[in-house]
Amino acid sequence: MSTLRMTIDGRVLEAQKGETILQTARRYGFYIPTLCDYAHLTPHGSCRLCIVEVEGSPKTPAACTTPVEEGMVVRTHSPRLQALRSEILRLLLSEHPVSCLICPEQDHCDECMITLRKSGVTTGCRSCSMDGLCELQELVVRIGLDGQSPYPVFYRGYPVEKGDPFFDRDYNLCILCGRCLRVCEALHFATTLTYVERGNFTMVGTAFGRSHVEAGCSFCGACVEVCPTGALVEKYSKWDGMPDGESKAICPLCALNCEMRLLTKKGQVINSLPVDLLGEGPLCLAGRFGIPELVNHPQRLKAPQLWEGTGFRQISWEDAAQILAEKLFNCPSENFGLLISDSSSNEDLYIAQKFARVVMRTHQVSTLAAQRYGHGFPQVIGLLKQSVSLHALSTARSVLCVGLDTRYLQAVVEYKLVQARRRGAVLVTFHSKPHNLSLFADEELRAMPGQEAVLLNELIRCVQGKTPSAKTLSKEQRSALERAAKHLVLSPLVILVGPDALESEKNKALLQAVQALADALHAIVIPLPAQGNLSGSLMMGAFPHLLPGGFGLDDEAQRQRVMGRWSTPLPAISTDPLFWQQKGRLRVLMTIGENPPEDLPESVFVVTQHFYPPAKRRVDLLLPLAAFSEGSASWIDYAGVMHIGHAAVAPYGESLPAWQMLCLIARSMGARGFDFNNAEEIRAEITRVVSGFWEGGTVDRFNLTIGSDHKLRQPLPTSELEYLSYPLSYWVQGWQWLQTQR
Amino acid sequence: MDNSAFIQFIQEDDCDPGNLIPLLQRIQQLEGYISEQSVRQIAQLLKISENHIYGVASFYSQFRFQRPGKHHLKVCLGTACHVQGGVQLAQEVEKQLHIHSGETTPDGAIDYEEVACLGCCAQAAVVEIDGVIYAKMTTDRLIKKLNELRKSQPALTEADDKPLSIPAPA
User: Fold this and answer.
1) Span B42-52, average pLDDT
2) Domain B3-59 superfamily per CATH
3) Is B46 an 8 Å CB contact of chain A?
4) What ipTM, to 2 d.p.?
């Protein structure tokens, strides 16, 4: 790119050809006030606050839309510009409740008028929930208003829209900068927000005044994040004000493991935001709005509880560890089992399987994944083994989405698909239910539930140039298959396999067909499971048939390596993969972030959980578990990449991360090899037995053992997103409401 | 228009999102307004969101989203008509029919619209009923006219008020 020379505020500097004045000025540290501009969005030029003077031109062009030119002389500040900007601000404010900004008492208001807050209607900054966080307010302070405003304040009198979950909308505060609708258009196939009407009556809205749920909004929250005023605000953190801390965390709610910023205030998580909205993509509603509700849930456990026949009694950690150590000491290894949630962190999973194998001398440690995926579990592992990052979509010419719906969850996938499609890739969807991608797909294949594999096998015949065989297909289906086949032969092809397909009833046949299609077309397959750390639980060896590193139990080299590291022999006998379902087998079942299964025979249960478990589940000892945001923890995503999240706040009450709790018990039982002080030390040990295990590294899944096809029961009926065995709707009220709307 | 009729209706160049406005115009010409169903059908045809289509259509005052009434009533609020009391005429219509500009009476008899200029300023203030222009209108005469319309007579073609014979704009 060629450079040219120009002058800004008397300083001669080099600019890149094609840049705007604003971009150049920002790069050199000049301040130009802006409102409608937002990083990575196309320039809009609507707020006019970035006007500059260009020598030789009588006009004052907007810096955000004017490209730089050779020899250009620009002034960003002058008395004339100051007067113009001040006037523009006054015009903007004439339609914005502004009383506090011009009030002579404003300096004393904070101390004297605190009861004015939380009023029904926003009449000024002090009665606005975004007081102190508002870009408009900041600009007024920065630019300054010269003298009194000659314009009367016009209150538009729109009703405040509170009907939708997660965020409220008060368009009386809207300044029509267009950020929200531009970001909506950039991120989604179906834009929800648009300018409605024109001129004086312009407002941001939806078609026919529908609610956001009806209008197809996915509640990714991008519009709320970019809104410079208080027009769009989160319901949950509405009056929380300025955060006092921020930390990087990893979302544990699905296998995408999106990185996010947790905003904290006074030791509590108040909000979660994506790291780079228009770069890496948005969060879904679970990550964007669900997190503060999830980690601050009022029913979370604070201290260990012991069941005493009629109720729980609160006890100390020392007592709990002692009671548990005694129970475990007297428990034969074949009668012990450990169930751990597959949304737990790698550290928890690693220490859990180490605890079972070293302290309890058994391989009876597992997640419920085998039960959830049923017959198709080996195929799920097979897909995870070859999965790559979603960046593959950036070079794909055709994309096939199998059982993927990105309306509410996994919203970032939609963003990547939008980018791919705008680049020219063709999109084919395959689903048994109505889904949000169908409207925008180049071809939509709809299978009857349970018949997915049949249709997919027909598709394979089509791409191989044969005619569809089955007589059961209708004429339309046959021509749709042929059109889809024409799209899919474009290479490179990426096949995304969503949670609906992975957890479908006949997932084994379906996933085998997906694999066959991928083999026939040399496609990249990317499975997107709904469990936060399914890959991690496999790689940490938290299954009866797996060792850390994903090796099978019979892999001698890895056995030696693990035994050397743990300086203890491994238990020899391999066990039933569904040990917890065998009647009369267990005397002690420990569950971590997992509720004990119903109707188990009399035995001793120890549960580590956020909440009290559901009714009719026997629990003897209840230990409080720290949330993911309360400690350093790592996750392995769908593509095998390891991510580390940091502690945003201290653990709630006396709760502890599961690894710390297990180390405490192991030490009180006299076991060696559990002297970990922090998560970094555990990660250092994992690195020795799992290759590729470092931040940003892709773990070596080459040796991941698929395991045999157990005679498993059918998958769990719900494909709802879960965190620590509770469905998301249990934690997040808005999501619960949305479920009732479907 | 049901889906099969819509498929019959669309022409080859309708499938280009750039031709959204001509498509909307043709639908309005046929049906008299843009229904929610039409917007959904266009969204499926062009693979753009319904909200986007509504945003485009609501920008132009030529598009209406309510089924038109049996009789069409337009009150001119251009400069000359404004001076001659067009606003009072408009207020009288709202008072008599209980509807605002762009709406249709609940019984579907009359739809009402405020327009900027009907092109016959010398005759201000003017009102257009079913394509016929009534010159030098007063509130009294307007009330009389509205009462006639409300008696659910068929659309008036000629009135006793010596209307100007200016054809309605297409």
Assistant:
1) 92
2) NADH-quinone oxidoreductase subunit E (1.10.10.1590)
3) no
4) 0.89
